[in-house]
Amino acid sequence: MSDLLGIGYSGLKAYSRALSTIGDNIANAQTPGYARRRLDMMEAVGGGNSVFYRGNVNPGGVDIRGIDRSVDAWLIEDSRLTSGDAERSATKLGWLDKVEGALSDETNGIKTGLTKLYTTADQLTSDPSNRTLRAQFLQSADEIASGFRTAANQLDKMGEGIEGAASSEVEQFNANLNALEQINIGLRKARPGSTNEASLLDERDRLLDKLSSQAGVSATFDNNGAVTLRASGSGDLLVGGGVVTPIAVTAAPDGRLSYSVGGSPLAISTGSLAGLAEGAGHVADQRAALDTMATQFASQLNAAHQAAPTPMAIRGSRSLRVPAPQR
User: Fold this and answer.
1) How far apart are CA 172 and CA 167, in angstroms?
2) How confident is the model at residue 315 (pLDDT cuts 50, 70, 90)?
3) Which of 18, 46, 111, 276 could be 60's S-S partner, Cβ–Cβ 3.0 to 4.6 Å?
4) What's the pLDDT at 60?
5) Shortest CA distance to 4 belongs to which of 40, 42, 46?
6) H helix or E strand, kind and range, residue 197
7) What is the SS3 assignment for 40?
8) Are 317 and 148 in contact (CB under 8 A)?
9) CA 203 to CA 35: how far, in whole Å?
10) What is the structure's pLDDT at 282?
11) Residue 259 in contact with residue 280, Cβ under 8 Å?
12) pLDDT tens for residues 259-297?
């Protein structure tokens, strides 16, 4: 006959552990990567029974089989895809806003300078020998040249800022890859159903969420929960089989970014790294467009005044100069 005190003790122990699990769920409800846990319990083998046969009148109390995590693999994967797209858009938008600010008239004054230049030019048409109007015209041209240089310098600094942000993000991405491999090592050693295993799985999911928000990744799992991580699209191995393959970022002379893994090009179409690459491309495009606009403005202005006593020599946005008027 089973010991009634032993049966009661097993029940109190099991439900004490269950209450502790509920407390953990409440305390960590907002913790990134944490999954709600449930205590898995089963009837214990009673006295006179065996693991192959159980009598109907020999209760043995309750045993704790382990901890189950309440997760939905499909919802998690969809959430990671969504977070990657959201991070790409948010990162790119942040740099687009800065580019818009650099190209606004409030920042560089190009629009105001052009209005003043055209107004003065109209006045010079009726009085071309007026030295005061001529000086105002040249001053307006110089202000426009200064505006082009200001905008170009800001775009240059923006390109450097994006390059620095991408380098930092790649460094963090590689650190997360290394941390994920350490989690894999721990999961292969953890006892199934233990609190340690549940904690490792939570940290694994947190790292996967972060990696997904940085770049497109694809994960598969073995029986221990250890993950093999590959780059989405290309399928390049990032973590798996005890191997971690870091990625790298390279900036072209015009500031455009490209990524590589193991020396081979890596196309990243989602996550913050994709947003940084798209932002760098936009800055490079705007910088080239600004140079073209400045060169066209200088060429047209010089062509219109090449017969004047003091023609203006104006060049591209990085070297715009307007010589002082001759007296």
Assistant:
1) 9
2) very low
3) 46
4) 67
5) 46
6) helix 195-214
7) strand
8) yes
9) 10
10) 95
11) no
12) 999 889 999 999 999 999 999 999 999 999 999 988 888
The structure tokens listed for 327 are: 């007296």
- Across the beta sheet with 217-221, the strand order is 217-221, 227-231, 237-240, 243-244
Nearest to 102 by CA among 279, 295, 274: 279
Contacts of 173 (CB under 8 A, 6+ apart): 211, 214, 215, 247, 273
- Structure-token pair, residue 261: 């893994």
Residues pairing with 239 in the sheet: 229, 244
For the four alpha carbons of 305, 306, 310 and 315, in that order, the dihedral sign comes to positive
Return the number of other C-beta atoms located less than 10 Å from residue 122's C-beta.
Answer: 10
Mean pLDDT of 176-191: 95
Whether residue 49 has pLDDT greater than 70:
no
227 bridge partner residues: 221
- Quick one: tokens of 162? 């994006």
Locate tokens 């971690």: which residue?
A: 244
Share of the chain above pLDDT 70, in %: 87
Burial profile 287-309: b = 16 or more Cβ within 10 angstroms, e = fewer: beebbeebbebbeebeeebeeee
Phi and psi for 41 in degrees, rounded to 5? -120, 155
pLDDT tens-digit readout, 62-105: 777 777 777 777 777 888 888 899 999 999 999 999 999 888 88
